[in-house]
Amino acid sequence: MADKNGNASVRQLEVRHRGRFGQISIYFGKFIRMFVYQSDWKVLPMAAIIAGLVGFALGREFGINMEGTLTATFAVVCVCIWNGSFNSIQVVCRERGIVKREHRSGMYILSYILSHMMYQLILCILQTVVTLIVLHLVGMKFPGKGMFTPWMVVDIGITLFLITYASDLLSLWISTLVHSTTTAMTIMPFVLIFQLIFSGGVFSIPAVVKPIELLTISSPGLKAMASQVNLNDLPYSAVDGMVKMVDKVEVGGRITLGQVLDLLQDEKNPMVAEIRAVKVGNTMTVREIGEDLLNNDTYADLRGKVLVGNVTLGDVISALLNTEALNEILDMEVGEVSTLGEVIDYLAADDAIRSLRNEGLDIHMTVGDAIDIIGREETMASIRKTASEAMYEPAYENTSGNIINNWLHILVFILVFAVLSVITLEFIDKDKR
Known about the structure:
- The chain is mainly alpha-helical.
- It folds into two domains: 269 residues, no CATH class; 145 residues, no CATH class.
- Helix content is 63%, strand content 6%.
- α3 runs antiparallel to α4 and α4 packs across α7.
């Protein structure tokens, strides 16, 4: 028997006469040899390629704006889940027959799983380091000081390692459940899709199934990393593109006498203040003041001042002078005034004019014109701020407690999957095959 199955017999005798700790070293050594001689090391260059593709495609907006950072964060979490999942999805099922025989010969399942965990831990650390290096090389930076270490990259590295290792042990458990590598590889895509859809960051899911996020590794992983990069404080820049798309869209509207008067009473507006400072005669009718402003070359620049959209002060004066409903007002004599501002205030306070505040003219402008009137930079900054506040997510708040809670969540998964792997494999002798 020894001659016919020499290696197996020696192996069984060795396992049988070793204690639990001794068996851990035997199997750990076996996995290291498999890493070197059976090309298990190929998972490292594969991790580098995947990280490179993600970093090259999404790294440029990481840390710059909210939506770009969230997308890149989600992609990096996906990379970690992918790496960890494919590390161990076949490791038990591909040698299930050997494990079954050695278990009957005295192998401790706990020792076997612990040796796998030790080996996979080292592999996940190496993958995390490779991933961070490649992401840095392709332009995805993690600048600044971390919350727990002097380097942000180290804090991020802890999160990526935990995600990778938890995914690794999830696949290890799956590998103990199935009886063939084909079945394992068939199940794996469904597990990955489940993790990605219920990550809670990119895909909007109904509130009724929201609690399912608690059962995923991706959700606490994404929350931890989003918290670390302070996602909530980044600007939401997608509004720039949205505004650009509608910038030339023409919108119609109606400007009334009341709106014009209100606008011309806004002394905080430098343009309006200039208009109000124009000198006028002591005793004139409203029509005379309007015609003087409309025809006097002295006021040519003033007439070109834009009030609303592409509508100038000259356009408004001309339209109002030709509005029959305002004839009574236009013939009103205005006395004891010296500036156009005083005329405007006088008219705004007049009871007769108040009854005609809704009279006016139709105007047309583009969205861009409207924004330019208010001030494009100020308007866009206000829109971005409002959008960022609307996108605020308490789960991404940049606090140590938030990050630690998510780390602990992932650590619970690691412990649970390890225990489940041991329990499941303890029943290997009951296999019918």
